[in-house]
User: Fold Magnesium transporter MgtE from Methylopila turkensis.
Amino acid sequence: MTADAETRAGTPGPDVVDAIRDEDGRLRSSFVEAVVAAIAANDGPRVCELAGDLHESDVGDLIETLEPDDRPKLIELLGKEFDFTALTEVDETVRVRLLEELPPETVAEGVRDIDSDDAVYILEDLDEVDRARILDQLPGPERVALTRSLDFPEESAGRRMQNEFVATPPFWTVGHVIDHIADTPGLPETFYEVFVVDPAHKLLGSVPLDRLLRTRRSVLMQDILEEDPRTVRATDDQEAAARLFERYNLVSAAVVDDADRLVGVLMVDDILDVIEQEADEDLRALGGVTGDEEISDTVLYTARSRIPWLLVNLCTAFFSASVIGLFEAPIEQMVALAVLMPIVASMGGNAGTQTMTVAVRALATRDLGGHNARRLIGRETLVGLANGVALAALVGLAAGAWFVNPQLGVIIGAAMVVNFVCAGLFGILIPIGLDKLKADPAVASGVFVTTITDVVGFFSFLGLASWWFGLSLR
Amino acid sequence: MTADAETRAGTPGPDVVDAIRDEDGRLRSSFVEAVVAAIAANDGPRVCELAGDLHESDVGDLIETLEPDDRPKLIELLGKEFDFTALTEVDETVRVRLLEELPPETVAEGVRDIDSDDAVYILEDLDEVDRARILDQLPGPERVALTRSLDFPEESAGRRMQNEFVATPPFWTVGHVIDHIADTPGLPETFYEVFVVDPAHKLLGSVPLDRLLRTRRSVLMQDILEEDPRTVRATDDQEAAARLFERYNLVSAAVVDDADRLVGVLMVDDILDVIEQEADEDLRALGGVTGDEEISDTVLYTARSRIPWLLVNLCTAFFSASVIGLFEAPIEQMVALAVLMPIVASMGGNAGTQTMTVAVRALATRDLGGHNARRLIGRETLVGLANGVALAALVGLAAGAWFVNPQLGVIIGAAMVVNFVCAGLFGILIPIGLDKLKADPAVASGVFVTTITDVVGFFSFLGLASWWFGLSLR
Assistant:
């Protein structure tokens, strides 16, 4: 019993987490309140005691949880104990605002101590002026390195890469390298492979640390190096790099410039963020939330950022309405059509959205491409037909019974089949088309698909009904 | 020039990829066709030449691209050159069907040579019988290890963990450990940290390889070990493990049993898959694609798997229709209402979906929790109000002009404001509520939100109009 109790205390892993986080992984309000109280009391020692030894991610979450005014106070009270890496873990809005409130010296001081990729991540969102003010505070070498990374395009591998890495000439022995690592201060905080470069700093290969350790000390690096390591160009898009990491299960990858000189290294933890971000963008885009809206944004900013999308839908909504407008007379003669028409449209919309979701995701993960596009277009159209027929039967029966009009049931059923086939066909054709046009399928597919299913739904149902029941159009 | 040309040839990284993949990272059809031809010609050497040295992920993609009948042929023709790890890279449907077609001896032979976590990944989807038939072919130790992993619940850390790891006693010196690693054959293929355990195999700590290399040979492991490594319990859910990796930027983590004994190690590349999968599930769920549908599924399977969701929407669609049914008489008297009502409903639906998307994602990433829920509910409601007013003005003007009836414009505008406020409020309340009820907000939120915006949209618009224009309800 006691032994077991000790055992538990022995592995702080999950338990430490539990101290500040609940089982869902959220920060405990009790903990947050304690920090808020300490900040209010301006009690530095207490704040350090509470948050000083926390992992940067926990500090980051803590900052986001605090009221905006308390955030800079927390950092001041933590003083030297505050690790600026924590700022890479908070929303951009929070970060930018916080950095503007802190004195540039403090930021420069903090940025100096952290890995270059984190420093870049923190500085890149600032406007030119603020950024310059901070960079000016940095000593030459650091400033040059950071400026070089910042010169690479946004969302490029060059922005995400770390400038610190371990590189050796090919003629060194494993033993020499191991001793070198043991004797050299100021090596990167973490690294998983040693790069082998020629005098021109051109990348010859890499040696994972486990392989280094498995090899006798007398062996030369050039004899054990991985000859074709997966490399990323500094100008490559970060998403391309992420896919490389995913596909080949990498933990780090060399970043080379256009002359194939080794300029940095990408780490998997940064790639994790990229992947999260990428999936996030797709998901929000499909939900009609474009732009970089964040949970910490204000009402006004959020409202404004969502308007464009709503305006697009406004136009498509009026377009669909105008289709209904063509059938005002028939609706007057048979008002049941007005009651039933939304069913055809919305069911088609749902079917189309299903197809579109699968297509958009498959395009994003590169599972859908030239070789299987034809097959999938066929599959989705047939799926639409199959489900269209199945649901048409149900809707037809229900509608026919509701309005005691079997023929009306047949008509709505027919319209549903037509709409479902269109839903399947365009649900996949539109994302593929947008992708071919180098547009992001996730962003625009939704409007097109639902507009088509609305228009086809209303038109086929009202049109068929008018024709079948001989309703005059004026 | 030539020098530069040589340089390029010197870094095969991207170039090797280019040989079989296009710039989008898709397999080149020229390459696929060559393989198909070789398979058709039953030309083993040619197949090996083409696909023998490929990375498992490339082989995996190749398998998926091939026609079902060619897949087992490819594996047979590759023979010893086929790395079964490739099967971890293909869809479940493809994998299961393929494994059923291959002789159990071949599969047993194959899973024997690969890491245990990959072996488990390959075997877990098979039904009891097939699995047993393969396990029986394995030598005792492997069989026991795999069976133990397979005994952990699905999607648990125990299923994803690797049984191979390097562990040392605390009193070993760094030098001793380094020599041990160099001298011991059959260590795990890749590892990033050395675990330190007591005689009872209880985890005392871990030493990252870079730290091992940075330390003098004479130092004892117990003096450099990370005292509280982030550990995962074998029974923990894989998503909880993934969040731990993300939060604390881990590349590997010790997996312990309930007695805190070290039983395995989780690797970041498996976590990458989990994260992808998790994001995927949210995205599909929001799109109404539940279940484990895959791009390689048949028409029938796909159609069936999508029906349940469409049936739910069928009911909600009829429910909304019944609301319209209440206003048959007013619509007959003023048919413009039928033309305009879908605008109110669909615009509200879009606004609600925007809010819901943000909420669902924030819940999934644990950014939305007790501490900020109230603030966000307030924000979303106000965003709804703000955008409702803005768009109400536009829609009101347009509708009023269209039907030369300013009053109708005012009515539709009022209805839109009402619907947008509801959209914002319920767009966030529903996901939070479902989350509190331990239901997956991503799966069910959509129906509820759009149903509410449809019903509120139709009811407020038709109701207000009937009242204002004094239209009789029968």
